Task: structure prediction
Amino acid sequence: MAEYGTAVHEASRKAMSAWYDRLALAARTGAPSAYLMISGNCVEILRSFDIEPAFPEVNALQLAIRKQSLPLILKAEEIGYSSDNCAYVKADAGFTFGEGAPGAGKIPKPTFIVCNFVGCHVYIKWFEHCSEFLDVPLTMLDIPFLRSDRPSDEDIHYVVAQLKNLIASCEKATGKAFDIDRLREICALSAKAEAGWQRCKDLCKNSPSPMDAYFDAINLMGPINVLRGTQDAVDFFDVAVREYEALVKAKKGPIPQEKFRIVVEGPPPYPFYRQFRDLFAAWGAVAVQSTYSTVGGIWEFGFRHDPKRPLESIAEQMLMENLCNRSLLERYKQIRRYVEDWRADALVIHSVKSCRLFSAGQGDMRDYFANELGVPTLLVESDLEDPRYYAQAMMKNRIDAFFESLEHRKLLKKPQGRTTA
Amino acid sequence: METAPAVEQARAILAAGLAPALKRTDAPAYGVFPVYSPVELYRAAGLFPIGLMGAGGQIDIVHADARFQSFVCSIAKSSLELGLQKRLVGMEGVAFHSICDVARNLASVFKRNFPGMHIEYVHLPQNAAGPETEDYLVAEFRRILAGLERRLGHRADDAAVAAAIREYNEPRRLMRELYAIRAKEPERISSAEMFPLVRVGTILPPDEHARILESAKAEFLARKHRRMDRVKVIVEGAFCEQPPLGLIETLEGAGCYLVDDDFCAGWRWFSTDVPEGPDPVRQLARAWLERGRATSTRYNPDKPRHKDLVRRVRETGAQAVLFMPAKFCEPALFDYVIFRRELEKENIPHLLIEFEEKMWTFERTRGEVETFVESLLFD
Ligand code: SF4
Ligand code: SF4
Result:
């Protein structure tokens, strides 16, 4: 077998660059495109009209990971954004509303903007600003927050009605008539990719886990959130499943020896992705599950788009089958299930200043897991976009101290015959 | 100018804090976190709705800092602190609303830490008024009522909702009248008086609040007054966490007449009375959609906030806008970008002042506002 994870990484890169090429083409030709948010999105509908989706969040992520975010954040602060606003927005705003931005012209000016307001209130502001600055019409999809175990019939009805309005906007923008059979086919492709996603996540229950479900999950997140509903996404997950199954068979994982299995909560510090990852790898810690990977959708528990009920299932995904539209207490349940079913030794909470959706109240989460459930829990702070909030030395100290004590605990526990492997 | 006796009364009630408010009526108190809450529903269910709006500077944060990080607004932390210090004992529950991610997560933290409370999360639409939005909101209001009925074990029927609408229309109408008087003759009502008069309504039953407002109105109208050389401003951004009174006094002392503001915005939500008529729950929902304020926590393409702000500037004859967001308040801070852009297009001067509920020195703000006012007066 080739080097660890190469095939997945390559396949993801290839599928995503084909999408970038399509965006660049749309930027040149003016072919229909729309802005959309990642969380619980309804990309299937746009796809059924051949409207190319563009995701400002992916733009922000790329800027951070390429270490280009800070000057753009500063530019955004000049036009009035506060130092306390979500820097994901600021980096994208600095890029999109500023001049001479790197890579300008590669992302089209959208034909229209679809704000899928799924949990994050900042989404509303972000897309209002895009609409205002770019002078592009905005369609808002108001998705009621999940207030009990399941959305009510009225919630579903409300969302479906809005999806129908969106369909009307798409018809107007493209001059094409809506074809429900096309949407069914797209939903069937979505469901296939989702099954692949679940399989990859399930394989992480093995020890060693064949992938790092936090740091490597990013390779899966692009295809599932951006390319869902295409054959490309299905093909990608075929590659991923094959590779991870082979790794499980060969008892191989992302690091030579898996010593700790962790669940990670919160987005990564993209400007310091590598450094942050290395701090865990140094301890043989592998993420076997992560909440961040489910911002777009939670497929590991079985949800699928349903070609028989395309609009209803799209509504269900938006309403309940993604992390963002669920309460903090629902997130506690999700993490608890991860810790138990994926047999994790510890929970690591990465608290980012930008994203209050994730971080507001994480101190309570730590209290719940550490004190009520007795799960060793580490909380560290930085940011997902703004490099000014990341302090490597402090981060290293905290992480080292945590794993040192975890190692100690493990040693003490071993004689009683309990291993986590 | 002598402070009006009704204002003194309001200030005294506010100074006593939440404790007496929790026991003010026989009905159990029900907390409402900002911004807007359908208080009529709680009232109809036999509860006494009161604002849970932080603790101002009245308590030290001892426990809540361990739950919420440093970059979270004060109102979230101090409201939680009140609970953790057992100062909300006797409160039946709290309603939170879809205003921001902090309030949303706070609802969960309340639920876990105070398991006996009836915690409600109300999703208010972030969209235009339309038949499906209205139907959704009616269903949401009915869901809340049904939850309270289950909890309290008795019916809250339409007649009770209709009666509650009538009750709350009264103080809301009086607040509108006072605001209209102040907009026209700001020298007649100082904002340091207006603020307690409005805020006290968040801890009083509507009829008691209306009585205070009535007498305040009579006192103000009888007042002799003289206009001073001040700048008329609109204050925008303080719709959730409330500023300390000292800050409002500072603005006035530095040479401003506040002709409009968004303090306690949710309690003065409607531009007219909520209509009476059949199906009062639907009347309330429709009023929310069609007669509600343009506020940073509500997306409404029919009434863009920045356009509405300019409209209010023109209508009141304000010469400038003071943006006054609470520190770390994302909805307000994001809106500054759009407001600023619009005001600059319209050549309307503006100044940004961040505040915190527990702020206690105002010297720097005074200096900034004075400089701003001078630049306008001698322009
Ligand atoms: S607050 Fe969080 S979810 Fe929302 S836009 Fe910012 S980073 Fe994304
Ligand atoms: S002050 Fe702002 S951020 Fe804080 S709870 Fe209120 S609306 Fe949310």
Notes: Residues 337 and 343 of chain A are 9 Å apart (CA to CA). Chain A touches chain B through 48 residues (CB under 8 Å).
